Amino acid sequence: MSSDATAIRIEGLGKTYDGGKRALDGVSLEVRQGEFFGLLGPNGAGKSTLINILAGLVTKSEGKVEIWGFDIDEHPRNAKLSIGIVPQEILFDPFFTPREALEIQAGLYGVPAAERRSDELLAAMRLTDKAHAYSRTLSGGMKRRLLVAKAMVHSPPILVLDEPTAGVDIELRQQLWEYVRELHSQGATVILTTHYLEEAEELCERIAIINHGKVVANEPTKQLLARAQEKNVVVTVDRDLAAVPENICFDKVVLQGERSLAITYRKDKVNAGEVLAALQADGLGIVDVVTKEPDLEDVFLSLVRSA
Q1: Are residues 153 and 263 in the same domain?
Q2: What sequence ranges are listed for the domain ABC transporter (predicted)?
């Protein structure tokens, strides 16, 4: 779905809070129209500050931000109309029903009554049977889905999901991703922050990682995964082992049971063949080999640690 047109452009964005805390430091990013973009980082890295600047809730200290071509300083209203944000915190009015909440939200965005999609959004979020129940009676997962519906009332071309599946069970998580994938297939630009790295790995075409207010990575997901240099292999040998073998090409060796060795090595220095040859040179016969491909968590941890 991605195109070369830009949905969000951020240049030299900085934010220093009262007291001197530097939350963002020279962040530059581009999100293309139609892209499924992941924004990752440890707690306190600056992700929420960045999203709150996009939402118009936090004032930036310096830099430039454009949303759908609208500068947030020069055209704040048009910028806000172009983006829907699902916040990390569960925020709701306990005295309104889900349908009333969506109608009020649509009214705040100036959506005419005839063009409102409250019932359609409730159906998409599996909330039709709760349309007229008080919001305070909804479960945590239902409240989170209501937040997604509220973010979509004005049909924004960009949807930002800030930890959308926190506290949501597996079934509801799958339903939520089914709906978001459908929106994406229809052309919506989706920006996701999540602590579930397997979600980002599966869903996002491009991922940026922020640490200490700076961008430490920003590239296609496949390219980012290729950065992982550590590989793990579990080798079963043909006899019991009293101690782990040592070799310069092993970064780490752990004995798992009497005949299995969990070996970590760096693929930029040696290959799997050399690892197995080292074991055979010690007189060990290879019975079975299981490799583990590096995942996004491996890359994330290595980048965050090095930063």
Answers
A1: no
A2: 8-237
Can you list the pairs that 277-280 forms with residues at least 24 positions away whose Cβ atoms lie under 8 Å?
278/245, 278/247, 278/249, 278/250, 279/235, 279/237, 279/245, 279/247
Distance (Å, rounded) from C-alpha 32 to C-alpha 44? 26
Closest CA to 177 of 126, 215, 130: 126
Integer Cα distance of 101 and 228 in angstroms: 45
Q: Please, is 239 exposed, middle or buried when counting C-beta atoms within 10 Å of its C-beta (0-12, 13-18, 19+)? A: exposed
Q: 283: domain range?
A: 230-306
- 165 with 286, same domain? no
Q: Do 211 and 241 belong to one domain?
A: no
Residue 193 CB coordination number (10 Å): 22
Structure tokens, 226 = 């290729």
